[in-house]
Amino acid sequence: MSPMATCRIGIGLAVVNRLLYAVGGYDGQSRLSTVECYHPENNEWRFVSPMSVTRSGAGEMCVDDFIYCCTVL
To answer: Alpha-carbon distance 53 to 51, whole Å?
Structure first.
């Protein structure tokens, strides 16, 4: 598996239509709003639309092809 473009910890993961999404996380300096999507057929990660807020340590769930991100405040 190829590496993601951004090293991160505390990411949320979700699978939608056979694609793996890595959501938010922490890069060692700040929380992230970026989202990367893994395409297994091409063995590559691509950036997709970011979240409107930064998050790390969040939980994700998928409903009807939408990813919902939940954090505890």
So the answer is: 5
d(CA 32, CA 18): 24
Kindly state whether residue 4 falls inside one of the protein's structural domains: no
pTM comes to 0.84
Domain that holds residue 25: 12-70
For the stretch 58-72, pLDDT in tens is 777 777 777 777 765
Q: Name all contacts of 61-65 with Cβ < 8 Å and 24+ positions apart.
A: 61/14, 62/14, 62/15, 62/16, 65/16, 65/17
Using one digit for the tens of pLDDT, what is the confidence trace for 23-42?
Answer: 999 999 999 999 999 999 99
